[in-house]
Amino acid sequence: MITSFAVSDVRIPFRLLRFKSEPPIAFTSADRMEAFLKICKTRCKIWLVNSYTIAGVMKDLAAHGHRAICFDPDEEGTGGELIPIEKVTVDAG
Question: Is the model's pTM score more than 0.90?
Fold first, then answer.
């Protein structure tokens, strides 16, 4: 369970899209990600993030200069909640 920030209904696992020059985007729904990808023409790397991989993924994002993740934007990539990477952790309990 994610407990380090107050984001409504963020669930693990979530799908993370990383672009070369844009902030990463996370989707808690495969359907929302699919709708976004139908419109998006930019190549990206896609990760399925779970409680076992989240620490390594956040470390990799920080190493590539990313400071935040946009959770659940609409299909055009607007909206969503921008969360600092250091706030995205998993409660061990």
Answer: no
